[in-house]
Amino acid sequence: MDKERLSQVFGGAWADLMRTPIHLDSLLARQTPRAKSILAQVIPPILMRPVSIAEALGVGVPEGEPWSLDPASLVNWPAARQMALELHAMLQGGSAPSVQASPEDYPPKMREMILKDWGKDIASQIFSELAQPAPLSLRLSRRVERKAFMDGWKKSGKIPVRMRDSQVSPLGVVLESYTPVLHTPEYDRGEFEIQDEGSQVMAIFTLWPELIAPLLRPSPQNSLGAPLPSLSDLQAPAWKIVDACAGAGGKSLALADLMKGQGRVFSYDISAPKLQALRRRATRAGLNNIQAIQVPEGRELESLRKFEKSADRVLVDAPCSGWGVLRRNPDIKWRQSAESLDRFPALQLRLLEAYSGLVAPGGTLVFGTCTFRKAETIDVIEQFISRHGDQFSKSHGGFVGPGSSDGFFMQSLMRKA
What we know:
The protein has 17 helices and eleven strands. The chain has helices at residues 3-19, 24-29, 33-48, 50-57, 71-75, 78-92, 108-129, 146-156, 185-188, 197-207, 209-212, 250-258, 272-285, 300-304, 332-335, 338-356, 378-388; strands spanning 136-140, 163-165, 172-175, 192-194, 240-243, 264-269, 290-294, 311-317, 359-369, 392-400, 408-415.
């Protein structure tokens, strides 16, 4: 692709990202194979590290940009186009810029909140970890033996990148970079799903919080070093599980598989298309213990009243700012307003309260988010306990990642008998 054509293709894609809510993956999926290949190389680094990439490439960026620009100006930000052209030229030549991640790569409000929550040292680690490309993580089915799976792929030569055991999830395999794993017989047989290690951990935590507790940290940071729990000797429980904000069902699938098809996973969400995707994925995985149910937004209590105090486990993986997954979704930080951030804690508390009524006496309520803002993690739990401490008590909880995995917070709450 010549320079002029690349400038046009990048300009159109960048404009769509800046003026619409389209997700980066969806944007790339719309492109021709050639354009997708190039844009997938140049757009994510610019989104993740705009200031430090510009400095490394020698592209002049006025102080304060891009964060000082309004949305209309970001659509036509000339530095972005210049960075794309320079970066593509370097990659074509077989080299890449040497980039030192900087706090300036994050919006001022985000920097301010992270520093206030966690202090300079932890904030510096967070800024660095979220600037690193994310690996491709797979969750293996419990019916698959991890060593045999990896040995089979290595011997066949089907996967052209290095792979290793996850250091965070006993179900996980990590590939060092993207490779088309979905077009394999193993995927068709339901032997694995693409799922971040931290998300896998949250699913295990929902069933057995005490097993995951040693991996959790009181602040967001790498979770390496703690011994991984073994799942091999665990008896599959025939429990009633509720996944309150299931989406397309990554954790629902993991929960159903962890129970080896026993019990029942009730997957609730407001999105019919996401639930339909979950049903397709469950069929491919051979899991018939998932029931996907659409719940109208704001009418949770009305819809769920008949299931009151009947679930052994309830997972509320609530909508959040998504800061823990910025390395996979760097476009998030370009779009969030202070107003949208302010809305999350109230929504999370409302969902936690609505679904807490489903927990049976002696059962466990799990709250999770893929962020590390105190307002959306620790503070939500404290508010919930202040209102419902007569019914629930805190058990295990903390953070995993970012670094070894994406960044997640999880907290278990036991319902008093």
